Amino acid sequence: MAKIGFVGVGNMGGPMAINLIKAGHEVTCYDLSSAAVDKVVGAGGKAASSATDAVDRKEIVITMLPKGDHVRAVYLGEDGLIQAAEEGTLFIDSSTIDVATARDVAKVAHDAGMMMIDAPVSGGVGGAEGGTLTFMCGGPEAAFEKAKPILDVMGGKIVHAGGAGNGQVAKICNNMVLGISMLAAGEAFTLAEKLGLDAQTFFDIVSTSSGYCWSINVYCPVPGPVPTSPANRDYQPGFSAENMLKDLRLSQQAAEQSGVDTHMGHEAMELYERFAEAMNQGGKDFSGIIRMIQEKSGG
Ligand code: NAD
């Protein structure tokens, strides 16, 4: 069983840490929120007094932080994790962050004699609690092989996507497809209904025709056809619109930096900005953007 340091035990990190404890690992955690730490301690974890304290004499350190700025500060800042950890420590960063930061931090870690992988997840809080997350990993093969048994405890599918940062690349490109396809679904259901085709009949056709996709078949944005979709519970998330906007912004930042024309991704980002920020609907499920389309189409 491993001695694991865990920094950032919020909505996702908390249940991930608790699954490691349940599997018999010794987990020492740190978070700016003492309430978040208390939950993990209540499940048998130990509390650290600082992030550096959490990495003290740990073979593996996992971080699950909000954004790239937090990751940069925690790893590279004064009293940063890389400086504090012992040589050979394996770092696993599961935060969803920009590709450039993931690659910068991995290089510093590598140059300091540490192992590191970026391992963002999909599956949400339900996946974190159930230990069924998908981990998309970037980094050297040896680091991935060492991380895999630990990730297996928290996830159902663990994929090695290549070198440093490639986990983040997989994550933001996947979510760019998702954001665009949800908008396409929202527009199609709105248009079909406006033209006199009811939602259930349209669903029955499109879900078995060439328009089928996850956003329609599994996560249908109108109530009725897929009883488990957030549309049936007033768009309670699920995956929030503000999280979708965050990931779309990451994809557009990467597209700009690499000179790739992602016209649809950019449009999707602007529409989610309108929905999540201008209309103040960021806490709703991202599929709720169909409401904005319906409103603009006269209800
Ligand atoms: P969260 O805000 O619930 O948790 C983040 C935690 O980090 C908080 O408890 C916060 O106090 C802590 N933190 C921030 N700065 C810190 C610091 N300097 N030192 C120690 N702790 C610090 O967010 P979350 O929902 O758990 O998301 C974490 C990451 O996972 C994000 O990058 C998010 O995009 C990604 N993600 C979230 C979901 C989801 O459904 N919530 C799904 C997939 C991926």
Automatic annotation (TrEMBL):
Entry's Gene Ontology molecular function annotations: 3-hydroxyisobutyrate dehydrogenase activity; NAD binding; NADP binding
Keywords of this entry: Branched-chain amino acid catabolism, NAD, Oxidoreductase
Location of the 3-hydroxyisobutyrate dehydrogenase-like NAD-binding domain: 165-292
6-phosphogluconate dehydrogenase NADP-binding domain ranges (all copies): 3-162
Annotated GO biological process: branched-chain amino acid catabolic process
Pathways involved: Amino-acid degradation
InterPro entries in alphabetical order: 6-PGluconate_DH-like_C_sf, 6PGD_dom2, 6PGDH_NADP-bd, HIBADH, HIBADH-like_NADP-bd, HIBADH-related, NAD(P)-bd_dom_sf
Active-site residues from the entry: 171
Cleavable signal peptide: none
NCBIfam families: HIBADH
Assigned protein family: Belongs to the HIBADH-related family.
Protein's recorded name: 3-hydroxyisobutyrate dehydrogenase
Lineage start: Bacteria, Pseudomonadati, Pseudomonadota, Alphaproteobacteria, Minwuiales
Gene name as annotated: mmsB
